[in-house]
Design goal:
By secondary structure, the protein is of the alpha/beta class. The protein contains 16 helices and 16 strands. The strands form 2 sheets. The chain has an 11-stranded mixed sheet. A 5-stranded antiparallel sheet has the order 1-2-3-16-15.
Length: 452
């Protein structure tokens, strides 16, 4: 067992997290043989976890999720944007997108025949640039997907990541009518948003974006807000989160994402926030009131899931990311990088997956968590090595520390709300009584592996 915080331990070989009560923690810390034997007997009842299978089992050929980086066009001029330095007007061809949709439909049917699970596909739109800059194409893809899903009796879910800066209610209505989950990139209160996220022509954007969020909120749309936190905006983060919660009480979640320092951010005198100060602000925000359906969740993950929490769907190869150039990649932040690309969708609509490259990418991740730089970290099989893109940057230690903070917060919350959270998460939980020195107590255990 490896300790991850006070009273909570992890056994990575079994894929379980263990919480001791205060007496149990004291006994264990002092080497009490009775509590140690008790814990060991409980652990022995769990099968060994095949982590290699977790990494290598999912293949892109049966993916039922796709993310289209629709276009590199953008109407904003965010002063830290990672893609602005190489911005062009490349846009996905409809034929390429349609081929991907067809593949998802087929894959969902195959999974249904194998498992009996409901036929379902997931389609999301991201940037790149701003997806609504090619709204006509987006709409054509959605309508094509709906038609194909209807004919094959397949459920379909849509998501979009957008700056929500378009002055067009028709676009917002279309998202709502088609049940989109709308992930909004907006950096907070007026002084922050207008400074960090101006329009490409230099004009301010807060008024339009704020008005559009109000429009969505009044119509009970599904939406979240993601704030990029820089060294300049950190002191306004609490105020920004509080503003969003008070103004839009039906917001599903707010996600804080520390800036990844880049050449363009340095040109504009922006760097990532100081880690210790960032964690203090996160702790302050944790004290804000949240209802059951809306949660503040820091930088990693949109739900309180521990399973593969730092291993995003593309890296698990259950989601295809398609760049405007037709590249199939595991990262939407650097889609053309050889570190992530593993296939292409040709202009003729042929999907080519380089399975050797997929195996290489999987092996790199597995080797890292088993014998590489993450091998001595207790969290290694919770985050599965974290976001590879972030781990390749100069800010990697900051992202790593924040992920650990977030995971601890999730785990503590799971143990405090086992009745509600674990039912949603499809994870096994046990609460067992022990008796040591004539004193009884409880050991709680849940598996961070999904129940099959």
């Amino acid at each position: 067992m490896e300790k991850i915080c006070e009273c909570i331990y992890i056994d990575n070989s079994k894929g379980i997290i263990i919480k001791l009560d205060e007496n149990g923690e004291n006994y264990f810390s002092n080497g009490n043989i009775d509590i140690i034997n008790e814990i060991n007997m409980i652990i022995a009842t769990y099968p060994d976890c095949d982590h290699k299978k977790r990494v290598f089992s999912i293949i892109p050929n049966i993916a039922t999720k796709a993310e289209f980086i629709l276009t590199n066009k953008c109407n904003m001029g965010c002063i830290y944007c990672y893609s602005s330095t190489r911005r062009n007007t490349n846009t996905i061809d409809f034929k390429q997108a349609a081929a991907v949709v067809d593949r998802l439909i087929i894959n969902s049917q195959v999974k249904y025949l194998k498992t009996g699970r409901v036929k379902k596909i997931y389609i999301s739109f991201h940037g790149g640039g701003e997806p609504s800059c090619e709204f006509g194409l987006l709409k054509a893809i959605v309508e094509y997907a709906k038609n194909r899903a209807n004919k094959s009796k397949t459920e379909i879910n849509f998501e979009i990541t957008t700056n929500l800066s378009q002055n067009n209610d028709h676009i917002l209505d279309y998202y709502i009518q088609n049940g989109f989950f709308i992930h909004i990139s907006m950096d907070g209160i007026k002084r922050v948003q207008d400074y960090q996220r101006p329009y490409a022509n230099g004009s301010t954007s807060f008024a339009t974006v704020d008005r559009n969020i109000r429009y969505l909120s009044k119509r009970n749309a599904l939406f979240s807000v993601r704030l990029t936190i820089t060294d300049k905006s950190l002191s306004y983060a609490f105020e920004s989160v509080k503003y969003l919660r008070e103004m839009f009480p039906n917001i599903r979640f707010i996600k804080l994402a520390p800036l990844e320092t880049s050449d363009i951010s340095l040109q504009n005198d922006l760097v990532s926030p100081d880690l210790s100060n960032y964690l203090k602000v996160m702790e302050e925000i944790d004290f804000l009131p949240w209802d059951e359906d809306s949660h503040y969740l820091s930088v990693f993950g949109e739900t309180d899931m521990i399973v593969n929490s730092g291993m995003c769907a593309p890296v698990r190869f259950e989601q295809l990311i398609i760049s405007p150039e037709g590249v199939v990649t595991a990262c939407h932040e650097d889609p053309l990088s050889e570190h992530f690309r593993y296939g292409e969708v040709t202009k003729c609509g042929e999907i080519i997956i380089d399975n050797k490259k997929v195996d290489i990418l999987k092996k790199e991740r597995f080797d890292n968590i088993i014998s590489g730089s993450c091998s001595d970290c207790a969290f290694r099989l919770l985050c599965m090595g974290g976001c590879k893109h972030r781990m390749m940057t100069t800010d990697r230690n900051m992202f790593c520390a924040i992920e650990k903070y977030t995971l601890i917060k999730h785990i503590k919350r799971i143990f405090s709300e086992t009745n509600t959270l674990l039912n949603k998460m499809n994870q096994e939980y046990k609460r067992l009584e022990y008796c040591v020195n004539d004193k009884t107590g409880y050991i709680e255990i849940f598996s961070f592996l999904e129940v099959q």
